Amino acid sequence: MTKKLLSLVAALAFSIISMAQYVTNPILAGYYPDPSICQAGDDYYIVNSSFAHYPGLPLFHSKDLANWELIGYALDRPEQLNLEGRGAGVSRGLFAPAIEYHKGTFYIVCTNTSGGGNFVITTKDPKGPWSNPVYLPEVNGIDPSLFFDEDDKAYIVYNSIPPNDVTFWNGHRTIRMYEFDAANLKVKGEQILLINGGTDIEKKPVWIEGPHIYKINGWYYLMCAEGGTGYNHTEVVFRSKNVYGPFKPYEKNPILTQKHLDPSRPNPITTTGHADLVKGKDGKWWGVFLGCRPYEGDYYNVGRETFIAPVKWVDEWPVFDLGGDVVKYQYPINATINKNAEPFNGNYTFKDDFNGDKLNLRYRFLRTVKEPWYNLTENKGALTLNLRKETVSGFSNPSFVGFQKPHLKGYAATALQFSPKAANEKAGLIAMQNDKRFLFLTQAVVNNKPVVQLYRDSVVIASKPLSLKKDKPLYLKIEANHDKYAFYYATKENKWELLLGDVDAKYLSTKDAGGFVGVMYAMYATSEGEASNNKALFNWFEIKNNDDVYKKLQP
User: Fold this and answer.
1) Catalytic residues
2) pTM metric for this prediction
3) Which CATH code is given to the segment(s) 349-552?
4) What distance in Å separates the CA atoms of residue 51 and residue 89, rounded to the nearest whole number?
5) Distance (Å, whole) CA 525 – CA 374
6) Which residues of the chain have pLDDT under 50?
7) Which fold has domain 31-332?
């Protein structure tokens, strides 16, 4: 072969490589945990846990597994979801939903740990409306999932307690199943024990959960999470020729984990598990799963996110094909990335000027909104929040409009117009992990004089006097840089002044704060237990991601 021909071949190969498309991980950045996926014709849908945030159960749509659009929430009406009281802590509420599609109907099963237990909802259109929950009292556990067999029989499989409630080790759990009457939305027959303990009971496996059943080439595959959703999280698989078992574990389990890797490796993705499988239109298999992006050791603030990776078949067993041991930030995929779509991953900027008559779907509230305390019409071009006595430290619904923190490095910012009339009146920008762990950058008054303050929970850790002209906004910014936060304010746009820097971000990490959610940035207003007629106006809200890892990836 001549040098000229070799050059042409090399150029062609480079051209093909350069035209390759990549899906970027996480596909849903920020707190979008416990993904479940289904296919309906040419469409794919993902649902995620939402715990005590409202609306409940975010739903994403894609045509190609690479481009994802938030289309709504399955529980978006107060009568569907009551989240209030001490039982509705931030990490309670809705756990691990699972979505299925069968003959024109979509089904979601889920657990409301704040009341009612396991339930099923249905719709013909995943954009909604979804039905009110039908509760399933016989399903005594968590993480339910539906399976429709080829003969149209349906089954519900879930995590539950050991037989006779006898626990032989801490974390000893079972996987159980009922036949499910899909027409009448109720279980039938007797409860069946599928798995007692996990893959190898001699090793005392813990927290077998998140089950899904698939029938592929004559085999029933039962795929589960094991090891808990922390650093030792894994995904394991069993199979049987009969849906009732016995299910035998894959001898090379786990099929997905990162627990054996060096935690100090660059840009780690950890705690992988709670997976679900789907077949692409090109015949290739993929798995979605939760994972975390720590900035140091096991410290992360963004929560558990949704990732995707290829799946290969080895001796008729599904195995995640990571391209080595490490979950990658990108995988080649047969899709064209829509760069004009609203992004949910990578380095992006989200800017909202509140010029519409409805809030962007991405905003979330803390617990169920039962009365109108915010609006976009009273002051056009601004989000108006009523100051109310509810606070983020309580167990009700405060004036809180949140956005999942999507980055390790980046910022959230807003422009606030507010005139506090008393010391109890506060409004500003909050970074919140739970009711006891938050950092609140607020405008307030002290001795009738305006100030900008930073609270760590209920304690002021920084304060400066304000000289703010009447009817002019105060600009607020929370900047994240891995294990540190910095808090800024400005009386003139982009003329930022540092209020306090080098604030320990680990204070808001899941490892220190506990729970299952991630940090939410939010516009927040409160009168701290007292009645008030005052209001706060937010002229815009902005999120910017600047994570270093994405600067080195394929465009």
Assistant:
1) 34, 209
2) 0.94
3) 2.60.120.200
4) 9
5) 10
6) 1-19
7) Tachylectin-2; Chain A (2.115.10)
